[in-house]
Design a protein that fits this description.
Helix content: 10-25%
Number of helices: 1
Distance between the termini: 20 Å
Number of domains: 1
Shape: elongated
Structural class: mainly beta
Largest sheet: 4 strands, antiparallel
Oligomer: single chain
Low-confidence stretches: none
Length: 82
């Protein structure tokens, strides 16, 4: 079952009268590859960078600064197999 969190986030953004714009940076990289088993599998690491991402007031276009405690970079690691 898919997570409902992204949908709830979009609802909250709309209710707050804000919009998100800009570019999210990311750099997926295969950090481990195992082709010896029955099913090949790889470990993939990706960084999501927020410096090019902005939240704006929908009506005025005014930039809403990110909280100073919010990380600007998120690292995700997953294992995938064929």
């Amino acid at each position: 079952m898919a997570s409902r969190k992204p949908v709830l986030d979009l609802v909250r953004i709309k209710q707050a009268g804000t919009v998100a714009t800009g570019e999210l940076g990311h750099e997926p990289e295969v950090t481990e590859l195992d082709t010896t088993g029955t099913l090949p599998k790889a470990t993939v690491q990706d960084c999501l960078d927020l410096p090019g991402w902005k939240t704006l007031q929908a009506k005025t276009g005014e930039t809403i600064p990110l909280p100073s405690t919010q990380p600007r970079r998120y690292v995700a690691t997953t294992t995938v197999e064929k």
